[in-house]
Specification:
About 50% of the residues lie in helices and about 20% in strands. It is an alpha/beta fold. Bound molecules: ligand C2E and magnesium ion (MG) (3 copies).
Length: about 280
């Protein structure tokens, strides 16, 4: 009996696997078509400069307006886009759309764009970025590229060269989700980062004295190397107060503002927007 049950469990498992594979295939096909059909859109999340109290940038976060699935968050399709290489054309679209949108924002507001490891390694990123800046007329200093540590893990020399070339264009570079992944301090020696973004997991735990000590150490490290240090994922006034007390220079999170549609971003970045958000 145990054997028969085992067999049934296996069949059930197999069927579930088939379904998962099928679902993935469907998603991949959909993803290819989505790019042609223009189903992607960018939402923007404001980032606050703590000292001045002004919104000085907004991060572009891609969403997929799927005809039947609704608004799909990036966690569901970015990994697949990376595996299939579709992230390269998708990333080009994101860069073009974000620089285009940011051109209409006040001149003191920058736009931050996430780039994947694959774009850095195989995506002609320097050429793509230069083309986006030229096509939209956005000054390079108003564009910031966010990359995660995993992008740095392989082929360091080439990645390093790409980052230096991007820097040469006048674009700023942020290390995203810092403290997760395989943080290596040697990255900070090899790459010319302008900004460190402390991962949300440290901010959500910042009440804990040990976690606060880690945040303090990251801030000391970042600021002594001349980097801006951003606290990601600020949800409560207490987290904001603690992040500020530990010396974070910029803040991002639902408390300051949720990601909003491109049409609403102007109101979210105009002077006074941060104060209005804080009163909510
Ligand atoms: P990320 O770059 O670290 O972006 C921050 C994520 O945290 C966003 O999720 C944002 O909505 C969420 N977030 C912001 N504040 C809070 C908060 O206070 N609480 C909580 N719980 N979450 C908060 P989202 O939009 O789902 O994006 C997830 C990830 O997808 C991004 O993480 C980024 O790695 C990736 N991603 C998004 N857009 C792009 C893109 O255009 N290209 C690439 N390559 N990756 C992208
Ligand atoms: Mg990011
Ligand atoms: Mg992040
Ligand atoms: Mg993240």
């Amino acid at each position: 009996r145990a054997k028969a049950e085992g067999r049934n469990t296996f069949r059930f498992f197999e069927a579930a696997m088939d379904e998962a594979v099928e679902e993935r295939r469907r998603l991949e096909l959909d993803l290819r078509l989505a790019l042609q059909r223009g189903e992607f859109e960018l939402h923007y999340q404001p980032i606050l400069d703590i000292a001045s109290g002004a919104i000085t940038s907004a991060e572009a976060l891609v969403r997929w307006r799927h005809p039947t699935r609704g608004l799909v968050p990036p966690g569901t399709f970015i990994p697949l886009a990376e595996e299939t290489g579709l992230i390269v054309p998708l990333g080009e679209w994101v860069l073009r759309a974000a620089t285009h949108d940011a051109r209409r924002w006040p001149a003191h507001v920058s736009v931050a764009v996430n780039v994947s490891a694959l774009q850095v390694r195989h995506g002609h990123l320097v050429r793509t970025v230069r083309a986006a800046l030229e096509a939209t007329g956005l000054p390079a200093r108003r564009l910031e590229l966010e990359i995660t540590e995993s992008a740095l893990m392989t082929d360091n020399e080439h990645v390093c060269e790409v980052l230096h070339d991007l820097r040469g264009l006048g674009v700023r570079i942020a290390l995203d989700d810092f403290g997760t992944g395989y943080s290596s301090l040697s990255y900070l020696r090899q790459f010319p980062f302008d900004k460190l973004k402390i991962d949300r997991s440290f901010i959500s735990g910042i009440r804990d004295p040990e976690t606060a000590a880690i945040v303090r150490a990251i801030v000391a490290l970042g600021t002594s190397l001349g980097m801006v240090v951003t606290a990601e994922g600020i949800e409560t006034p207490e987290q904001f107060a603690l992040a500020r007390a530990e010396g974070c220079t910029t803040a991002q999170g639902y408390l300051i503002g949720r990601p909003c549609a491109a049409g609403d971003v102007l109101a979210a970045v105009l002077p006074g927007a941060a104060a209005r958000a804080a009163r909510r």
